[in-house]
Design a protein that fits this description.
This protein is an alpha/beta fold. The chain contains six helices and eight strands; from the N terminus they run βαβαβαβαβαβαββ. Strands 3-2-1-5-4-6 form a six-stranded parallel beta sheet. Strands 7-8 form a two-stranded antiparallel ribbon. Strand 1, helix 1 and strand 2 form a beta-alpha-beta unit. The structure holds S-adenosylmethionine.
Amino acid sequence: MDIHQKEPREDADWRVYVLRLNHRRERDKRITTHCALVGRAFGALGMYYSGDQDEGLETAIKNVRINWGGAFSVQHVRNPVSFIKDWKKSGGSVVHLTMYGLPITKISELFQSTDRHKELLVMIGASKVPIGYYRLADYNLAIGHQPHSEVAALAVFLDRVFKGSELENEFENAKLRIIPQEAGKKLLRK
Ligand code: SAM
């Protein structure tokens, strides 16, 4: 299965995919699922992950897609280093989110200076990220310089990329849709 969506999204300048590094099936199952949920909800088109292959994770996200629509899915990559090299060879850019990186406020000048097309892979770690990934990335960006969470870092990053427009994304073929309420819950089922 190749999760790469060939058709560009007309409503977005950037086509963003997440690369979750070194997933550990037991320890990270909830947080990696949250990375995928946040990626999907905040405008990424799919998530690759390295480390342990995890059918439970892939099924959980498939069920979200079936109920809530869209085409977001997750795909395991065996060799993340060659995956990143291939991504760059085919013209995409690579951002690594790390508290050691340049401030996220640099995002617009960094992005304007890229001559690559707007296909972006955003890497987030689980355990300690080996230094080689810092060198492979085109940009190492910090969401503040305090340690926090890959889930938070990803959400803030995507929101900066899409400038808030991602919160209005509609997902095709959704079975479930929320009708916003001042108080209470209203869910439309198709
Ligand atoms: N201790 C690990 C290290 O030294 O690489 C980081 C673990 S942290 C819980 C997991 C991931 O959250 C990091 O790899 C990074 O992608 C993200 N992260 C945490 N704080 C961040 C920050 N201030 N800015 C950007 N990303 C951050």
